[in-house]
Amino acid sequence: MNRVDFPTLALRAEVFPKTIADRTRKVYDRVSFIYPASTFFFHSNAHKYVMEESGIQDGSRVLEVACGSGEMFRRLVHKNRRGETIGVDISPNMAAKTQREARRDFPGQKTYCQAVDARALPFRDESFDSVVVCYLLELLGQDDVVSVLEELHRVLKPKCKLSLVLIGQNTELFNRAYRVAGSVAPAFWGRQVEQSVPGLIRDLDFRILKDRVLRQGFYPSRVLIAQK
Ligand SMILES: C[S@@+](CC[C@H](N)C(=O)[O-])C[C@H]1O[C@@H](n2cnc3c(N)ncnc32)[C@H](O)[C@@H]1O
Q1: How many domains would you assign to the chain?
Q2: Does the beta carbon of 75 sit less than 6 angstroms from any atom of ligand 1?
Q3: Which of 7, 23, 32, 195 has the most CB atoms in a 10 Å sphere around its CB?
């Protein structure tokens, strides 16, 4: 697969760094204590929708990649009381906060969070029943979007589901504001990639079962639920 065949990724390739992971880790480390506010105002509707539609079963093995400050992670742990829920985030402060609060709120449950880069997940092939990833792909460098999607595919068991949340690109005014924010602070905002992602995941032989655009205030999200 030629990565520059995807129009949105290719369009921004010259201005967006090839890899930005170190800067992203530092930025998200610094904002970990205030990040829950952003999740509450912009991400919680999409998180709720994923919980309704992803088909996550109690007693299963669930992975959240880029768990941030843990709001979605706690929803997953709450649903998966008898199972094992694992979270990873490149920011050690985010992973530590998520771990601490999940263990406080759900003592005795199997919850594990680690500081891990999504480009190299330290898990065996086909070892998860569900994988959830919200608002990560925007932050990845040009070459890393496909690498991370390949990793998600690798760790998911056959016939199991990937739930992916992206920042929507369906509102021109929002897109313009996002482009400005992304050029000022690329490691925090990244750039929108939503329109390229369905094609990329189909190329990996995922079948898209649900595709829904949501809004929370002015903030658009697109949720894809895909089966391996
Ligand atoms: C926009 S926040 C979203 C957090 C959370 N998923 C949510 O829905 O609110 C993006 C998160 O991705 C993490 N991240 C960025 N690049 C990553 C990478 N290469 N591997 C793992 N996590 C990464 C950041 O540290 C940050 O916590």
Answers
A1: 1
A2: no
A3: 32
